[in-house]
Amino acid sequence: MSLDEHSALIEQLKPLLMEPDFQELFQQLTADESNSTRFLLKMELNRISSPCSRIIDLRDKSELPCEEVTHNNQHHYLDGPAKESFMQSMALYRDQYTLGVYEQVIETHKQRKLKLRSGENNQNNGQLTPFIAKGVVLGNYFNRSEERMNYSIRISTLQSGRVEVPGITVDLSVGGARIRLPLTHNFDLDKPIRVKLLELSEEYYYEDLQKGVDYEIVDTQTSSEYCWMRLKRIGGTEELATMLSNLIKGYKYRYKVDINDVLVAATGLGFERHYLPHLPHLPLFVESDDGQYKVTHKLLSRDNQQLQFFFRDEQDISQLPGMLSSQRLDALLREPDNKDHSLFFCFTFQAQGRLFFYSATLAELKSKNLLALFLSFGATKASWKVFKLAHHEIDHSQCYKASIIPGDDSGYSALTEAQLKRFTHVLQLINLTAEHAQVDYQAWDCKSDRKVNELKIFGQQKVTTNPIKLLSLQFSERRNEARFAFKTQVNINQGKVTATGFTHDISSKGLQLTLEHPIQFDKTAPLLLSFPKLQPLAGKTKLNHLAYRLIRTRKNSVTIHLAAVMGHTPHAGVEFLNKLIIHNEEKLEKVTEAHSETKELADGLKNLLMRHLDSVPFFIEKTAKSAQLTTLGIGTHKNVIMDLFAATASEHLEYNLESLLKDGRLKKQFIDPIRAMKPQHGLEYFEVYLQVSRQSQGQVRVKCLPPEEIGDITARQHFINQSNNLGRFMALRVYRGASGKPDLNYIRRELEYINAHAPHKSKKLEELLWKIIGVGELLDITEEVQLRYPELYGAPEKQLKVSA
């Protein structure tokens, strides 16, 4: 196994290396890998996270001025780019100088010098790497319900029958810790250790602190002097957990809170919101009933609705279930590696005012020796369609929510969670129909002497009801909590402006108010709310000066909608209203629209879809001079398209798209068409043929050409045969379209959380999302394209034997 094939997985695991529950996350994320692969991954991660003693000195290696950077009595001399790389890498490894930090700084410096040298010979423009795209992981985010902070205090550790050993904490959370001990600690790593938090026991009196708290040793790393242990708390009372939680909340301003997980999730979700409105495929969700698979839900985007319209008959009933019968789904899902079960061919026939559907899979046509007849006859129909059905099994061990910030519930409502648990697979119905290829399919006519009447066996049985539930992707604020009718007085202050109103309805994180008099509030500044009538119920919790932000105003500024502003500390209003709703839910009238749970379910289905995209989304970013294809949306699972472009890139999570974009194609086939489009136009596409061959020393060469540049049908067939002889042939469909403005409402709470701890990172992410002007995807259509050339399939059907 090559570790390069798992670069995305390694990059995602890096930020988690210093976590107490790293081993659990590692086991979860590598569940589908072999034992040997997991061993190699673990060895690599242990290697890059081991402490490093090597000094980095670039004073005689850089053309830029260098400055001294000191860390733990080590003095490095770094230029500006190297210092930035050093600081970013140190944050990744929890401020520990590891071999991974050293290698990242040296490699970044090396690549910068190489690009600089190549740039001296290339005066076309100032863009040194116009064809290199970075990867952003979509759909797979690590969620944590508790915060962690870098917090160093003196500790004492012990095991039964062994000498007590002093040490320090490196970071601390409610459920775990990372500690540093002398290398000669002599502890049994397979047994729990007891940790006394000495400085806390001096300041707080808890029996747990005096006796010590039991921790499980999750992982260890060593240097010549120290041993770092990653621990998971297995002892202690709820009082101790509360104390630790309060400690972390109280020290947020003095110690660094780790926001990496939230930032990664917000970045991925931000790019998702650019892509999903343009999703051209129809996601379908499968349940198993007494061993029979059936599609029960489908998910609509703005651009995939034409796909589901095709299956509506004269009575507006979808005949999609007729094509995706239980027998076909069973064949597809029980033989997931047999691609013949995933290619569908379909046409319609109208008679006596009724619309009849005919469909067959490639596997069925081959087994019945009717491939040439069906393709040649069906392709003469205006209704001719070719579909690919991508499929993935759902991993129910993962949380269904895509993003959980500390303090959030880890799941959806019980009803939504129960429904999500029933799904077994996610399908994507992908339309591969190309009008220009219909004449190619008609060439199959010379391969068959069968009669058209023999196609009657592929006539679909009429479906008389619509059994598949339709849900729509939500492109507004996604966390639509249940709202309840509730009236209470609210006093509002914003600067010198004061007002009084009454709630119309409430949720834990938001309110709808009716004011006594219309007032124009400043949308950019928070509103401070007080709840005088509820204060007697709140006890010690102070329900005044609570920060909310104005979402929208209705009815001449009399009715306003507010959302809580989440900051460093828990929002007292959110906590109180949440308790109020929970304890009085049966008494309160629910006023949320009937489809509130549907919105939540749609969000969960979207998350299941994004974890296994069959295509590779890309994003066009506006630059100072023009625009570039800067980003690919990638997953943690192997994808042949990503592997192809990663093979010729020099760094992890980078993809060399030169073969696709060179010779002016970036401008001609991407930038110019996208600039002429509007977001509401949807996506258009073009196709390219790829010749992938291996060169000496294992290098990969990719030749990429549009089929019209290759020539006529004979030239294209020669190109395909030549490609397969040299290596392999691939065909890609490239979708492209204009992107709308970023849906920042969808990641508002993530942005607020990041902004509270690292405002510059929040601002940088927003700026990045606003720069995206184009979106599209790369889709592998190799199997379908090869079917357009009957001569590539060899002997005609009339010479083939029908299997018994």
Automatic annotation (TrEMBL):
Source taxon at top rank: Bacteria
Protein name per UniProt: PilZ domain-containing protein
PilZ domain mapped to chain residues: 143-225, 477-590
Molecular function in Gene Ontology: cyclic-di-GMP binding
Alphabetized InterPro entries for the sequence: PilZ_domain (IPR009875)
